[in-house]
From TrEMBL:
It holds the Pfam family CX9C. InterPro entries: CX9C (IPR031731). It comes from the Eukaryota. Residues 43-77 form the IMS import disulfide relay-system CHCH-CHCH-like Cx9C domain. It comes from Euplotes crassus. This is IMS import disulfide relay-system CHCH-CHCH-like Cx9C domain-containing protein.
Length: 91
């Protein structure tokens, strides 16, 4: 065990944490210009439109659109797999 850990374990110095920022940063995943949406528009345009129409018809309740969400999830998994493995595909 390194000596620094021994000092901290037995109260020789105060242990300082680098994890002082507890805020959560949200990235724009659903914005129209986000890379995720561009990929979905290229590969899964009909699935996205069916899911969005279902969501708008049911007041954005995903529990009522599980069928269309499942179809979109399968299409999205294939799309992101293609994008991540194809070296020619550049965003």
């Amino acid at each position: 065990m390194p000596m620094e850990n021994m000092v901290h374990m037995f109260g020789g110095t105060k242990k300082k944490s680098t994890l002082v920022d507890e805020s959560v940063i949200f990235f724009p995943r659903e914005d129209d210009g986000s890379p995720r949406q561009v990929i979905l528009d290229n590969f899964c345009q009909s699935e996205v439109s069916k899911f969005r129409s279902c969501m708008s018809a049911h007041d954005n309740d995903e529990n009522k659109c599980l069928e269309t969400k499942g179809i979109l999830d399968r299409c999205a998994a294939d799309a992101f797999s293609k994008v991540n493995t194809d070296p020619k595909w550049v965003f």
